[in-house]
Amino acid sequence: MAACIPPGSTAQVKAIPCNIRKEDEVKNLMSSVVSEFGRLDFLVNNGGGQFQSPVSMLSLKGWNAVVDTNLNGTFLCLREAYNAWMAENGGAVVNIILLISKGRPGIAHSAAARAGIDNLSKSLAVEWASNGIRINNVAPGSIYSVTAAENYKDIGDVFRHAIPFTPAKRNGTTEEVSAAVTFLLSPAAAFITGETIKVDGGWDLYQVPWEIPEHDRMPAYNWEKIIEEEDKPKAKL
Ligand SMILES: CCCCCCCCCCC/C=C/C(=O)SCCNC(=O)CCNC(=O)[C@H](O)C(C)(C)COP(=O)(O)OP(=O)(O)OC[C@H]1O[C@@H](n2cnc3c(N)ncnc32)[C@H](O)[C@@H]1OP(=O)(O)O
Ligand SMILES: NC(=O)C1=CN([C@@H]2O[C@H](COP(=O)(O)OP(=O)(O)OC[C@H]3O[C@@H](n4cnc5c(N)ncnc54)[C@H](OP(=O)(O)O)[C@@H]3O)[C@@H](O)[C@H]2O)C=CC1
Predict the structure, then answer these.
(1) Considering its fold, how many domains does the chain have in total?
(2) Is residue 5 a part of any domain in this protein?
(3) For 94-141, what is each residue's pLDDT tens digit?
(4) Does residue 12 lie in a domain region?
(5) In principle, which of 69, 128, 175, 202 could form an S-S bond with 133, CB 3.0–4.6 Å?
(6) Antiparallel, parallel or unpaired: β 42-45 and 133-140
(7) Considering the domain boundaries, does residue 169 fall inside one?
(8) Does residue 7 form part of some domain?
(9) Mind listing the pLDDT tens digit for each residue in 66-95?
(10) Which residues line ligand 2 (CB under 6 A)?
């Protein structure tokens, strides 16, 4: 990132290692930012991820790892940014979540965690309004990046598979997500809080990428069948 700063700019970049699942590291991150830069105007909760698995195959450890990273990690960053600076001075927050309106079969653990963030943002938009804090979410569709693709390389080219499900017929770019994030952080979004913006090329309005096998396991509700069952002679004990 430092290499992207144009010559003559006063912008600075500093990396502070932090596992968002560790409370002491998150406290250190927020207090270091305030002591080093004297302020903390914006927070973008972007760290997160998951692995693909049907729920029936998920271990509790796997479920907990994903919930801990995505939901608990975001909670810690929010609370510590509030305590370190934003409670007194206000600020703007954007959480990166997932498309969740139709559930996310295949990554249900992450969708449940991100739905928790979506709802947490609504509560905080009200709880923290009088502190001058706005909080919003961005829900990306399929966004190609080298690092995200690397994470999924063992299960095939998920980013190519996503294209037919996206009305725009392409993956999004990281710049397109950044554009929505910077808008929400900017004064142009001064009257927007507790909201989620989808950056998905229309995916959420279209199809769910999950094939349901043909089956007859959900028969219709039917009076006659129930009466027939009730009229059957009961087995003697
Ligand atoms: C028709 C198909 C259309 C498909 C369309 C798909 C479109 C794609 C759209 C993309 C949407 C989302 C994209 C992104 O989010 S990009 C971000 C990419 N980066 C990541 O996702 C990072 C992922 N990794 C992590 O965040 C962490 O590693 C994770 C939270 C997943 C795990 O945390 P931790 O490292 O602490 O956990 P462990 O490695 O110790 O594992 C704990 C247990 O979790 C289970 N587990 C972990 N990894 C896997 C895996 N790959 N597969 C199955 N299970 C896994 C396991 O139970 C671990 O315990 P054990 O090691 O004891 O077995
Ligand atoms: N790409 C996509 O299509 C989509 C992405 N998203 C979400 O967007 C966000 C960015 O993903 P993307 O850039 O695509 O993928 P990346 O894998 O490149 O980014 C995920 C980032 O999360 C960080 N991270 C994971 N766990 C922790 C942790 N415990 N503490 C601190 N940081 C952590 C990783 O850090 P490190 O590099 O150190 O491991 C990495 O920088 C994620 O939340 C992702 O789930 C949502 C929908 C779609």
Answers:
(1) 1
(2) no
(3) 999 999 999 999 999 999 999 999 999 999 999 999 999 999 999 999
(4) no
(5) 128
(6) unpaired
(7) yes
(8) no
(9) 999 999 999 999 999 999 999 999 999 999
(10) 18-21, 46-49, 69, 73, 96, 98, 140, 142-143, 145, 147-148, 151
